Each structure stands twice: as C-alpha cells, then as structure tokens.
Write the structure tokens for this entry.
Amino acid sequence: ELKVEQNPLFLSMQEGKNYTIYCNYSTTSDRLYWYRQDPGKSLESLFVLLSNGAVKQEGRLMASLDTKARLSTLHITAAVHDLSATYFCAVDGRYTGNQFYFGTGTSLTVIP
Amino acid sequence: NAGVTQTPKFQVLKTGQSMTLQCAQDMNHEYMSWYRQDPGMGLRLIHYSVGAGITDQGEVPNGYNVSRSTTEDFPLRLLSAAPSQTSVYFCASTPGMGEQFFGPGTRLTVL
C-alpha cells in the first residue's frame, strides 16, 4: 500500500516569513498534486507535477518533485494571511496498481 | 460546465438508515472516485470507477456500495448508517491520468 507522509501537520508562521512543507511517499510515482482546502470548502488544485525535477510556481507558492527521493516540497515565500488554509499533497499511484493517496494535510495559519 | 456536483450538501441520518449520495460530472471523465475526510486523516478512498460498468474498492469500502451505469453519474450508497460514517464525503472525477476535480462535498452526520 502506498503511504504518503506530510509534515508538519500544523504550521503557524508570521507574515513575511518563508517556510517549506514536505511530502514523502513510499512507492514509485512521477505524478504528484498539491491541493488547497479552505475551512468548510472543497479541494482546489494548486500544482500538477508530472516528472522528476518538475518545478511549478504560482505567486508566493512553489512546488517541486524529486521522484528519486520520493519527495515533494511546497515552499511558501513571504507568507501573507490569505495563504492560511490546509494544504494536501496527493500521489498518483495508478501506474503501480495503486490509486490516489493523500497526505494528512498541513494546516497553515499565517499570523499578521 | 457545472464540473462535479454533489447532493445533498448536508444530511442527518439515524443509525441503521440507508441513503444515497449523488455525484455527477459533465466533463466526460472516465475515472471517478469517492473519498471521506475525517479530522487528522486526510482523504481516504472509499470506491472508485475507471469507466461505466467498472467499479472497485478503495482503502475504506466497508459499509458502502457504488455503481456506475453511466459516465456522468457515480452514486455512493450507505447500506445501514453507523455513527462511524459521520464524515465529509467528496466525489472527484479525473481526465485520464491527470489531476482530480472535486465536488463541493456532502456533510453527513449519523446519530
């Protein structure tokens, strides 16, 4: 069974600071997705990473994928309050007989 | 396009009752899935379908049934509701091998 570990689970940071969320997974996959979820809402797609070394950036968020290390990172630059949300990584294991597996999420709070 | 729609948005059931959560998509996606979301546990896959007439179990299938008679619809049935099934349920659809698109969710409480 594919396992996805995300850390930290909770993150409180001040506006203007930088931080990284980590997503480790246990089996071969070169497809990984990041989602954002606001309280009481559904999941919104942020990034689609489809190969080793893929890097995507949108505003203050940058995601990368290292398939050899089975690691993806979501880097936050100069955090602002609007980034407060829960962030999930999801690994697409369908190539290896698995399905989609989600990390447990990182609850981010940006303090003014 | 409406994307992925789910009904109802909220539901309260008594233990032992049955019900069907509806999910529909208008994007002609072959792959559809149902998840439940519980605090601290991320999203866990209940059932999925790779096309009309084909369904399979996910990580937590017990107590749930699905069917896929059309590409558009993928209902989830709770056979005999239990308090442990109190959760938020999300339906998702996926184009081929791409990312998932999620519905707005159904918040279910079982008393």
